[in-house]
Structures are given as C-alpha cells and as structure tokens.
Amino acid sequence: MAEVVLNQVVKTYGNVYAVNHVSLTVADGEFVALVGPSGCGKTTTLNLIAGLIEMSGGDIHIGDRLVNDLDPKDRDIAMVFQNYALYPNKTVFKNLAFPLQMRKLSKSDIEAKVLSAAKVLDITHLLERKPRELSGGQQQRVALGRALVRDPRVFLMDEPLSNLDAKLRVQMRTELKRFHQDLQATVVYVTHDQLEAVTMADKMAVMNGGFLQQYDSPKNVFDNPVNMFVASFVGSPAMSLVPLEVVTHGTDVALRSPEGWQLPLSAANARKALTSTTAKVVLGARHSTVKLHTTQTPGTVPGVIYTVEPTGDITFVQVFLGASVVIVSLDPSVIVEPDQKVWIEFDQDKIHLFDGATEMALAAA
Ligand SMILES: Nc1ncnc2c1ncn2[C@@H]1O[C@H](COP(=O)(O)OP(=O)(O)O)[C@@H](O)[C@H]1O
Ligand SMILES: [Mg+2]
C-alpha cells in the first residue's frame, strides 16, 4: 500500500473550478472519505487521483512516484464505482479472474488470488454464480473483490454503496470498515453521506464548491468545525445556527437576538465573540447539548415549539427562537406540544461561535 499526496490540485472546466487548489495527504493504510454535497468536486478529485481526467494544475504523488503524467493503468490503483458493472455472462470467479488474465498471470496464480479475495469478502460459495443470481450486496462485494485481486497500492471508491437499499448500505458500511481494518489498505472513498464518512473513515476531507474546507478525524471535525458550512454539514440532525449580535455591558459580553433577549456569555465565549470582525456572530449548538425547559429559568432564552418528531429512542423537537430554529433532543417520555412556549438553555462549554460575516469559527484571542 502507499500514501497519496495531493499538492495544490486544480481542475477547471472553462471558468468553473471543479477542484480548487486542494492539498491533502492520505497516509499509507488510511481510510479517507471525501465528503460534501453534490457537485462539490469529490468525483473529480477521485478521477484526478485515478488519472481518468487531466489536471489543470498541481501535483499528485502515489507512494514515492509523481503520477501527473502516468496513465491510469500505470498508477497501481483499483476503482470501485456506484455501478459495479460486472460482466453479466461471466461467473463470479471469471469476473474476478478477468483483470488478472488481462495481466497475463498464470492460471494457478489467478486461482490463488481469486480464492484469497473471495475468502476475505466471504463470497467463496458464490463463485460459480452469475451476477444476476446475486443480491445487490453480494454484487457489490464481487465488485470489491475485483478491485482486491489486483493488489493495488490504493483503492479508490466513488459512492460504492449508493445503489443499495438503506439496510444493506448500513451492513456494507460495517463490512467495508472491516475490509479496511483487515487489509490495512489505503482507501480514498467518495460519499455525499456524512454519516458514511463519520462512521468509516480515519479522516474526512469535507469539500464545498471545489474547496477543501476541513481535513481531520471525524471526531475533530464534529467537535471543532472550522466554519458554518462544515458545522451544518456534519452531524444529523444538523447543528442549529442562530444569528445574534454581540453587545457589551462594561466588561460583560452578551449575545442579543432581534427579538431583544440577551444571552450572557461565559468569559471564554466572550473572548471568542469579541474577535468577530463585525458585531454579527452566529451561535451554533448541537441538539444533544441543548436543554428544554417548560418554565422560565435563569440563563434561558424564550422560544416556541414548531414540531415534535418522535423517532423511537429520541424525540427531536424543533423550537423557533425568533426566526431561527433550534433542534433539541428529548427522552420520549417527555411530553411537549407544538406551539407550546418553552425556554432553551445552551451549554456554554459546548456552544460554537462563528463570525457572522466570514462564517469562520471564532477562537479565543
Ligand atoms: N466533464 C465536465 N464538464 C464540465 N463540468 C464538469 C465536468 N465534470 C464535472 N463538472 C463540474 O465540476 C463540479 C464538480 O463535479 P463532481 O466532481 O462530479 O462533483 P461531486 O462528485 O462532488 O458531486 C460540478 O460543478 C460539475 O458540474
Ligand atoms: Mg460524484
């Protein structure tokens, strides 16, 4: 296996930057998810690593080789796509063997590699079947097997689970994670599904509009999103974002809503808020860190319940604070109703503050 290094990689189509000066290092054996909304440049980035499209600028290294000018077949990579495109008239064994026959391996080598890949993916009992005799999940495993037999330096996967139904997707997620753990393979995995990225990847590269927004472990991205885009993209339900204004009273600092309520800030949050480029800041809070009170309590701010969404284990409640919606999670035993007046308590140690103008996370000066 090998590391993959992108240095200031650019891909333009006309005057559109599909990929805009992206730099990142995927360490040897690491599982990295490229994640972001549709059109943000994930597939283009993956195809640049694969060599399927030509770069407009920058460098890509795989292992110690600069691959900018190498054909895909010389890059020692294997791709797995959303459409697994198995050969319908070949058995699973022959589907797996085919890429090796193309490389003119001996019959016994081919058989050994196919059997070993089949064992890893638990498809040995399917080797004599045709693709149409397999379930979606089994077909996806065969597609993975076809990549695996090639013994590549890097696996590149583009939304490989998107065609599967929800339950199978969750199951394959577990299997892919196990596949990575067992093989210690270098994997670059594209998905628009932040949950897939968070659950499987060692690191996630969050992209938006061709730019790399943040590249870190899922935990660090979740705990310390660098900007409002990342904050609202990662985590479900999304982080609530409430635009407010910084006001000072002597040495005390508070956030004031358009409705007129004020939230006094802790010393640490006050220092952050004062670094804002303008008086506008956005308070961010994840549902699990917000408390809901049904009576007025010191340190809370007033709101009105919009919807109550039971999910079984947790009930999500959407509360309007003026024009902003804050999502709170409750134990299902707590009974609240739409249009009920409530009070929201933010945990000062858990809130995020963003610059209202630049949308970047504010750090204490
Ligand atoms: N062959 C192409 N010609 C023109 N524009 C393209 C082409 N391929 C991708 N793009 C544009 O580049 C951007 C990124 O696309 P893509 O990498 O496919 O996004 P993602 O995989 O994140 O959904 C989009 O704006 C898309 O329209
Ligand atoms: Mg794509």
From TrEMBL:
PROSITE patterns the UniProt entry points to: ABC_TRANSPORTER_1, ABC_TRANSPORTER_2
UniProt superkingdom: Bacteria
InterPro entries given in the database record: AAA+_ATPase, ABC_transporter-like_ATP-bd, ABC_transporter-like_CS, ABC_transpr_MalK-like, ABC_transpr_MalK/UgpC-like, Mo/tungstate-bd_C_term_dom, NA-bd_OB-fold, P-loop_NTPase
GO molecular function: ATP binding
Protein name per UniProt: ABC transporter ATP-binding protein
Family: Belongs to the ABC transporter superfamily.
All copies of domain ABC transporter, residue ranges: 4-234
Annotated signal sequence range: none
Gene3D superfamilies for the chain: 2.40.50.100, Nucleic acid-binding proteins, P-loop containing nucleotide triphosphate hydrolases
Keyword terms of this UniProt record: ATP-binding, Nucleotide-binding, Transport
